[in-house]
Amino acid sequence: MPSSSIFFRRSTNGGATFEPAQNLSGGWSFGEARLSVSDWGLFAGWRMWDLLFRSSLDGGTTWSNMLNLSEGFGFSGVFNIDSNGPNVYVTWTSSSGILYRRSTNGGITFEPVQNLCNNCTEVNDPFFAVAGANVYLLWWTGVNWQGDIFYRQSVDNGATFEPPPQNEPAQNVSNTPGGTGGVKAAVSSQGILYLVWEDATPGNSDIFFRAIR
Predict the structure, then answer these.
(1) Pairing of strands 22-23, 34-37
(2) Contacts (Cβ under 8 Å, ≥6 apart) of 140
């Protein structure tokens, strides 16, 4: 399969003009890039055989050396990145479940891999909702719309998650008999998780809402 590259361009005048493009991947990409921005820096990830990552702590002028975050742990090509200050949160799926790594220094180094859903199957699009020290990891599990929305919560900037993955299953957010999908989430400054999703439980597709306090 031919590879391509991930490019980045920056504007410092509100989008009136852009600086020349920078090649972040050097040809090591199969597409599917993600970019997260916090007041600490810019954090880019993309898909190759593994999950590759670079950070910029000077507004995109220069970028760190490339890191392979998934090497040795498997990578199915589905991933997401979020950030809050110097904390960078990365999740991806593999044959062993939903894997997670955290950086507390702006992506310079990452802590060891955690498996937050061991042996989960048919996992789709894990993503984060972050506000302050509250970090939620959400995902949808199922086939052909027959499934539910699950989450784990951290209240300590992503250091640990509840329920503990080694002890209890994840919380089922939707828990409805109908098919679900299209979940979106946001977190308030008080740590309240708000979700909307499409659900076919009434017999036709409607938008459901839930707040988790």
Answers:
(1) unpaired
(2) 123, 124, 125, 147, 148, 149, 150, 180, 181, 183
Rounded alpha-carbon distances, angstroms, from residue 6 to 22, 90, 168: 8, 18, 39
| Dist CA 44 CA 59 (whole Å) | 12
Residue 200 pLDDT grade (very low, low, confident, very high; cuts 50, 70, 90): confident
Burial per residue of 38-64, b for 16 or more beta-carbon CB atoms within 10 angstroms, e otherwise = bebbbbbbbbbebbbbbbbbeebeebb
Domain ranges of the chain: 21-120, 125-213
pTM listed for this prediction: 0.90
DSSP string for 78-125: -EEEEEETTEEEEEEEETTEEEEEEESSTTSS-PPPEEEEET--SEEE
What string of DSSP letters covers 173-212? SS--SS-EEEEEEEE-TT--EEEEEEE-TTSS-EEEEEEE
Average pLDDT value over all residues in the chain? 88
Whether the pLDDT of residue 85 is over 60: the answer is yes
The pLDDT confidence band at residue 1, using thresholds 50, 70 and 90, is: very low
